[in-house]
Amino acid sequence: xxxxxxxxxxxxxxxxxxxxxxxxxxxxxxxxxxxxxxxxxxxxxxxxxxxxxxxxxxxxxxxxxxxxxxxxxxxxxxxxxxxxxxxxxxxxxxxxxxxxxxxxxxxxxxxxxxxxxxxxxxxxxxxxxxxxxxx
Length: 135
Fold this sequence. Notes:
Blueprint lengths: L1 H18 L11 E7 L2 E2 L2 E8 L7 E6 L2 E4 L1 H4 L4 E8 L30 E5 L5 E7 L1
Parallel strand pairs: 1-8
Antiparallel strand pairs: 1-2, 1-5, 3-4, 3-6, 6-7
Protein backbone atom coordinates (compact mmCIF):
# COMPACT_ATOMS: atom_id res chain seq x y z
CA UNK A 1 0.00 0.00 0.00
CA UNK A 2 2.84 2.45 0.74
CA UNK A 3 4.27 1.92 -2.78
CA UNK A 4 0.90 2.67 -4.31
CA UNK A 5 0.54 5.83 -2.20
CA UNK A 6 4.04 6.98 -3.15
CA UNK A 7 3.31 6.39 -6.83
CA UNK A 8 0.07 8.37 -6.69
CA UNK A 9 1.82 11.18 -4.82
CA UNK A 10 4.55 11.41 -7.47
CA UNK A 11 1.97 11.37 -10.27
CA UNK A 12 -0.03 14.14 -8.57
CA UNK A 13 3.08 16.29 -8.12
CA UNK A 14 4.08 15.79 -11.77
CA UNK A 15 0.62 16.76 -13.03
CA UNK A 16 0.47 19.81 -10.79
CA UNK A 17 3.88 21.01 -11.94
CA UNK A 18 2.77 20.76 -15.59
CA UNK A 19 -0.33 22.78 -14.85
CA UNK A 20 1.68 25.49 -13.07
CA UNK A 21 4.15 26.07 -15.89
CA UNK A 22 4.04 29.69 -17.04
CA UNK A 23 2.99 30.32 -20.61
CA UNK A 24 4.25 33.37 -22.44
CA UNK A 25 1.16 35.43 -23.38
CA UNK A 26 3.21 37.19 -26.09
CA UNK A 27 4.47 33.97 -27.74
CA UNK A 28 7.98 35.44 -27.89
CA UNK A 29 10.50 34.02 -30.33
CA UNK A 30 14.28 34.19 -30.21
CA UNK A 31 15.93 36.55 -32.69
CA UNK A 32 19.67 36.60 -33.31
CA UNK A 33 22.12 37.56 -35.98
CA UNK A 34 25.36 39.07 -37.15
CA UNK A 35 26.23 42.60 -38.25
CA UNK A 36 29.12 43.59 -40.49
CA UNK A 37 30.21 47.04 -41.63
CA UNK A 38 32.44 47.27 -44.71
CA UNK A 39 33.13 43.53 -44.48
CA UNK A 40 34.19 43.54 -40.82
CA UNK A 41 32.23 42.44 -37.76
CA UNK A 42 30.84 45.41 -35.84
CA UNK A 43 32.81 45.55 -32.58
CA UNK A 44 29.95 47.12 -30.60
CA UNK A 45 26.68 48.87 -31.22
CA UNK A 46 22.93 48.52 -30.81
CA UNK A 47 20.11 47.18 -32.92
CA UNK A 48 16.55 48.39 -32.36
CA UNK A 49 13.37 46.52 -33.33
CA UNK A 50 10.15 48.44 -33.96
CA UNK A 51 6.88 46.47 -34.38
CA UNK A 52 5.07 47.22 -37.63
CA UNK A 53 1.76 45.48 -36.90
CA UNK A 54 0.92 46.55 -33.34
CA UNK A 55 2.18 43.24 -31.91
CA UNK A 56 4.11 44.57 -28.95
CA UNK A 57 6.61 47.12 -27.83
CA UNK A 58 9.91 48.15 -29.36
CA UNK A 59 13.03 46.54 -27.96
CA UNK A 60 16.74 46.53 -28.57
CA UNK A 61 19.83 44.35 -28.27
CA UNK A 62 23.51 45.06 -27.86
CA UNK A 63 25.89 44.09 -30.64
CA UNK A 64 29.18 42.66 -29.40
CA UNK A 65 31.86 41.37 -31.76
CA UNK A 66 29.32 41.34 -34.57
CA UNK A 67 26.68 39.27 -32.78
CA UNK A 68 23.34 40.11 -31.15
CA UNK A 69 20.69 37.94 -29.51
CA UNK A 70 17.22 38.43 -28.07
CA UNK A 71 16.53 35.27 -26.01
CA UNK A 72 12.99 33.92 -26.25
CA UNK A 73 12.45 33.73 -22.50
CA UNK A 74 13.46 37.27 -21.58
CA UNK A 75 12.94 39.70 -24.43
CA UNK A 76 12.26 37.77 -27.61
CA UNK A 77 9.93 39.23 -30.22
CA UNK A 78 6.26 38.38 -30.70
CA UNK A 79 5.31 37.06 -34.15
CA UNK A 80 4.87 39.73 -36.81
CA UNK A 81 6.78 42.25 -38.90
CA UNK A 82 9.50 44.48 -37.47
CA UNK A 83 11.77 47.22 -38.72
CA UNK A 84 15.39 47.12 -37.55
CA UNK A 85 17.60 50.15 -37.06
CA UNK A 86 21.31 50.16 -36.23
CA UNK A 87 23.49 52.48 -34.19
CA UNK A 88 27.24 51.96 -34.53
CA UNK A 89 29.20 54.88 -33.16
CA UNK A 90 32.70 55.78 -34.26
CA UNK A 91 35.21 55.10 -31.52
CA UNK A 92 38.57 56.82 -31.87
CA UNK A 93 41.74 55.66 -30.20
CA UNK A 94 43.71 58.00 -27.96
CA UNK A 95 44.30 61.25 -29.82
CA UNK A 96 42.45 59.93 -32.88
CA UNK A 97 39.82 61.61 -34.99
CA UNK A 98 36.14 60.97 -34.47
CA UNK A 99 34.28 61.26 -31.21
CA UNK A 100 34.58 60.41 -27.58
CA UNK A 101 34.93 61.94 -24.15
CA UNK A 102 38.70 62.48 -24.49
CA UNK A 103 38.44 64.46 -27.73
CA UNK A 104 35.51 66.72 -26.87
CA UNK A 105 33.95 65.74 -30.21
CA UNK A 106 30.47 64.18 -30.25
CA UNK A 107 30.57 60.62 -31.66
CA UNK A 108 28.63 60.01 -34.86
CA UNK A 109 26.63 57.06 -36.09
CA UNK A 110 28.56 55.23 -38.81
CA UNK A 111 25.33 53.85 -40.30
CA UNK A 112 23.53 56.07 -42.81
CA UNK A 113 19.72 56.32 -42.59
CA UNK A 114 19.48 54.77 -46.06
CA UNK A 115 21.34 51.67 -44.80
CA UNK A 116 18.93 50.86 -42.01
CA UNK A 117 15.19 50.52 -41.44
CA UNK A 118 14.74 47.18 -43.18
CA UNK A 119 11.64 45.04 -42.52
CA UNK A 120 11.72 41.37 -41.48
CA UNK A 121 9.18 38.93 -40.09
CA UNK A 122 9.18 36.75 -36.97
CA UNK A 123 7.23 33.51 -37.48
CA UNK A 124 6.28 31.06 -34.72
CA UNK A 125 8.45 27.97 -34.72
CA UNK A 126 10.92 29.29 -37.30
CA UNK A 127 14.43 30.40 -36.44
CA UNK A 128 14.82 34.14 -36.96
CA UNK A 129 18.50 34.73 -37.70
CA UNK A 130 19.41 37.98 -39.43
CA UNK A 131 22.58 38.58 -41.42
CA UNK A 132 23.05 42.33 -41.76
CA UNK A 133 25.80 43.49 -44.09
CA UNK A 134 26.36 47.24 -44.37
CA UNK A 135 28.69 48.18 -47.28
